[in-house]
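Protein modeling request. Please complete all fields; requests missing the sequence field cannot be processed.
Requester role: graduate student
Desired output: 3D structure, token encoding
Chains: 1
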Amino acid sequence: MEAFSVKAKIPDHDQQSAAGTAAMSEKETPAALAEERTLLAAERTFSAWIRTGLAAMGGGLVVVRLVTVSSFAHELAVHVISALLILLGAAIFVFAFRSYHRTAQALERASNFSHSRTTLLAVTTVLVLIALLVLWITLT
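Delivered output (140 residues):
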């Protein structure tokens, strides 16, 4: 039985580097790739802040719906804690928008990158409106 073997030619590092540089289009320059990584990092950060805001809102809902109290003072405290958590979630949405927008504007000034501020503002507005509706639900 014959042994199976594969012979591969491994290119020299200098040859590989020269070939990679020649094949790299103008759009894939190191600076453009760095800008793309920065944008992707900003989007991941935006998503993380949105998740945090949603978690705060969820915490506010859990507090008001699951905590049972017998006195008016304790009920008032539960509603205040719930309202603060929901408002914190709304504030986090606004902070996430401002932070991402600031990063995107800096990228626009540094290169030919453009982003849709309208879409980002619409998403943030909807999230803040949802937070206000949740606040209204918990307080009634």
